[in-house]
Amino acid sequence: MKQLLLASQSSQLEVLNHPDVKDWAGIYNLISKNVNVIDRCEHLITPFNFKSIFPIPTTDNFNKTYEEVCIESAQKIIAHSRTINKPILIMYSGGIDSTVVAVSFMMAAEGDYSNLKIALSTHSIRENANFYYDHIRGKIEVIPSETALDSITSDYIIVGGEGNDQLFGTDIYKTIRDYAGIPFIHQPYTEKNVTDFFKHYNLSERQAKIWYSLMDDQIRTTQIAEITTIKDFFWWYNFCYKWQNVYFRIPVRSTSSEPLSKEFLDTYYFQFFISIIYWILVIPFNGNTD
Q1: Which residues in the chain show pLDDT less than 50?
Q2: Handedness of CA 99, 102, 105, 107 (dihedral sign)
Q3: Is domain 66-163+258-282 annotated with CATH 3.40.50?
Q4: Dist CA 219 CA 233 (whole Å)
Q5: Which sequence spans correspond to the domains of the chain?
Q6: Rounded to an integer, what distance in angstroms lies between the CA atom of residue 249 and that of residue 191?
Q7: Distance separating alpha carbons of residues 73 and 3, to the nearest angstrom
Q8: What's the confidence (pLDDT) of residue 2?
Q9: Is 0.90 surpassed by the pTM of this model?
Q10: How far is CA 115 from each of CA 27, 111, 148, 242, rounded to the nearest angstrom?
């Protein structure tokens, strides 16, 4: 698949009708059309000149637990909020991911919630009513999530719960279950298994073979993780190719008039399981949040 740049002399229609672009876009028969495929290993060449801003970091001698990373991440954001004197606004849906975020901040704050706010809705409360009534109501200031997208400004440090799905799996597992049942997901990934699955979701045979070849070549060349089963294969797709897309889901829906520059995103916007992992892996921390 050749690399295509969106040259000024090419019309949008010409680009979209190019065979390479059509083959690349075949993957959208399986995933959302709002997802951009960006290889964090920078091995895959796509028809569009995307830039990877979240390359996969090295993890040599990394020995922290998931809980330790979550609490340390919250400690770092709290320290950052004190440095720039801005409150933290947690985007809370009531689901597992955002509840992990909220609990991590509660543990890191050690009872001092004065700098924390939570954006939620009635749906968030219904999703996890016990947690809301036991740990949020009357303890942490809340704002309606319906207006939270207006709050993506330098008045707050926005913290979302994106990225946890990319760490632990993918919603494609449900599609695989509906396609062939749970046992299928634990079979070795092979060209036949994967391309048959792709074709079932309306990729052409050519597109299915192209995407299998691209992903298989990237896995074998980079060898960053051990990928052997169909489950591994599609976890890797989510972890490697969708990571950057989910980071930007909230900003692109923002109704704020404030420009979303790189400096703004680095200072006032954190997706808990995406942004802060780089602080944990790269920047030493002594645990002091003063």
Answers
A1: 1-9, 282-290
A2: negative
A3: yes
A4: 9
A5: 12-58+171-241, 66-163+258-282
A6: 32
A7: 37
A8: 38
A9: no
A10: 43, 11, 17, 32
